[in-house]
From TrEMBL, chain A:
One of its GO terms (molecular function) is oxidoreductase activity. SMART domains: CO_deh_flav_C. Keywords: FAD, Flavoprotein, Oxidoreductase. It comes from the Bacteria. It comes from Streptosporangium carneum. This is Carbon-monoxide dehydrogenase medium subunit. The lineage of its organism: Bacteria, Bacillati, Actinomycetota, Actinomycetes, Streptosporangiales.
TrEMBL record, chain B:
This is Carbon-monoxide dehydrogenase small subunit. The keyword Membrane does not apply. Keywords: 2Fe-2S, Iron, Iron-sulfur, Metal-binding, Oxidoreductase. InterPro entries: 2Fe-2S-bd, 2Fe-2S-bd_dom_sf, 2Fe-2S_ferredoxin-like_sf, 2Fe-2S_ferredoxin-type, 2Fe2S_fd_BS, Beta-grasp_dom_sf, Diverse_Oxidoreductases. Pfam families: Fer2, Fer2_2. Residues 1-78 form the 2Fe-2S ferredoxin-type domain. One of its GO terms (molecular function) is metal ion binding. It comes from the Bacteria. Coiled coil: none annotated. SUPFAM superfamilies: 2Fe-2S ferredoxin-like, CO dehydrogenase ISP C-domain like.
Amino acid sequence: MEFLRPVTWAEALAVKAELPEAAPIQGGTDMMVELNFDVRRPVALLDLNRVAELGRWSAEEDGRLRVGAGVTYTRVIAELGEELPGLAQAARTVGSPQIRNRGTVGGNLGAASPAGDSHPPLLAADAVVEVESAARGVRMIPAAEFYLGVKRSALEADELIRAFWTRPADGPQYFSKVGVRNAMVIAVCSFAIALHPAERRVGTGIGSAAPTPRRALAAEEFLAAELDWEAVLDGDDLLDGDAAPGGEAALAPALLRRFGELAAQAASPIDDVRGTADYRRHAIGVMARRTLTWAWNDLRSGTPDRRAD
Amino acid sequence: MRVRLTVNGRVETADDVWEGESLLYVLRERLGLPGSKNACEQGECGSCTVYLDGLPVCACLVAAGQAEGREVRTVEGLADGDRLDPVQEAFVECGAVQCGFCTPGLVVQAHDLIARVPLPSDAEIREALAGNLCRCTGYEKILDAVRLAAARRAGTSR
């Protein structure tokens, strides 16, 4: 085995072009488990820790955030919690503090596990993955087109993940995950929602309940059409701190139920050691209703920030 | 391959390191520092927790080559000569040690917590230690030890 240690991005791409079988390693929280347990013996490890730019994030001119593939979960939580609340919530559920100090969203994308916690919020927020090869340059791949199968992504053998791009939240975002305890849990299943009130649009992401992370498109379209956006956006229906959650724009039980059904129908889960397909479908429906309720109530109460206009 | 790194303030060199080897293996088997324990090898148990450039990580999940040129502090590096670190003292006094296997990882993780959060709440302690498994004591005495160490460090108890 070789241990390759590029220092610049250009060098990393050149190395990957020359040796496409080299396995990129970022935080190592997935790769090292496979090495320790003899599951994988790549011809080479391509250590990306020394490529300093991967550890940076920036606000770009078009208003989006560009987050380097080497930004750890700990830093997503500490530095991007306001801008990317859904992703930060998901990051808080990853492993343990020690794992979050090493693990990265870029690594999660590279592994492309259907159970990866980053994926549902990235899908819900319309994130785009920036990948690059020395031969063909940059490709911008929408998250919804990135995941192709169980641990398979649209990344070509000579490409590396450089960053992901996403707009700062323009409305409430939530993530929910089912597991047997709060720490060190691989999701039984998970769900993310992002409301985009200015566009009267909803984003969703389902985790660990299909061969790939995926959106619940019919559920999104249903909500976009049925939610009473005008009532919350013209401010008539603002919830007071202690007001009962009734009022004009409260979510009707039938709407919640239908959203849960459509979300569950979008899943195609399997029975495995972590849970049954039936349980997963049920839980996706519950989480869909729950996260929608949280998000909608935030929008109605004007918290944390109605960036709707 | 050869790996050079700083461990507990000393520059160390390990030779004949396999490219897929973990930092934990280098520390224990090549540098003679068995304090960090090797249990799950998948980041699940926290018993190999060390500082890597000041951040607690599972040494079993860091490739040895990734530690090249970097600074590692293990449980062996917490005491000041013969004087135990207050976290170590508190673990002894509170009876937070039974078989001792998880202790080094818990000590390093608790050490980091009270350096960042001087008087952590119980929820903060539980969250900080969520990645460290103990199968003997049932955690209560471990929580006692962290509270005691924090209080002493903050000067609110002796």
